[in-house]
Write a structure and sequence with these properties.
The chain is of the alpha/beta class. The chain has twelve helices and 13 strands. The longest helix has 21 residues.
Length: 375
Amino acid sequence: MPNSKDSTSGGTNDGVEFVGCDLQYHDDKPAFSKDPTTLECQTHRPVMVNGKRMLTVDVHAHCLIHGVKHLVEGRAELGGKDPFDDPGKVRVADIPTRLEDMDAMGLDIQVLSVLTPNHFNWAERELAEQLVSINNDKMAEICGDYPDRFVAFALVALQHPDLAAQQLEHAVKKLGMRGAMIGANIEGEDLSDPRFHPFWAKAEELDVVIFIHPFDFKGGGDRLKGKGFLNNTIGNPLDTSIALAHMIYEGTLDRFPGLKIVAAHGGGFFPSYIGRYDHGHNSNDRGGRGDEVKKPSDYLKQLYFDTLVFGTENLAHLINTCGVDQLVLGTDHPAGMANINPVAHILSVPGLSEDDIEKVLGGTLQKLLKLDQKV
């Protein structure tokens, strides 16, 4: 490798060349058996399927920017916690480790996004301006240094919708970012609230992706306490489900039909219960119909969903329900709930064509994010 910023690997040249293997997939005989491990990597980069090199793009990849720590230290809103002190969060500054992980996972490109606890949606306007500026500038710097391995979703201060719209425009037009990641709720406020319309209008105007990621769902109260990490395993997908439901029933997706929304964790529970929502819409039982102009299942074609649902049957169901054109690769790397074997999971689903596989691994995101990378 020519220098420390070589994008093929994160280390020095030790005379070692990493090579992928040609994965053999047929619609009646997937390349991997049902439910591959989620804890070990089985598909090193580059990913080859039936002799064809596949572009792989991870829409769900987080980072942590330490340059803002001094701005929030000691704030009462943090409740005494240090959101920068978690050994499970790989720092974006550790590029060699990051690239090694990506190579092992079979990932060509990651879309960086700031971890949701570090969005600080409680921040007043002036502080929010500083936090967003530092985070976005640093991510843009990383992407500039490694343009064939990283792109980024901007951080925006959605608690100040007009400011968020300005920040999104600056990030896209001046910093080269591909959209923004936002929480599934903003300090308990639903994304469908009319006060957020200026942000949605700007996202539609700019024709960029908005990645919705759950955060700090308090609606379950004490019932999500106890063993099993239920505030994550149940609370996170429930948070996203509620956000999508409100955006449909409150008419947000009708008001802004050009939005490009990607929902984390396969859209939570929403796709799996779409028949129930359609029944409520059709029968209007006890107010089951909202302001939506179509039945809820029709909106699935306006939304995109990452593949982070962990099981082969879950992923097959998501494909069958939403359509293969609406799915994009997601890992949640480097969080503890990441699936670090994402390519194997896609290739464990029977019935896919090579074209389907190419779309889900990176082809659809290549179009959505307007990437010019070639493999």
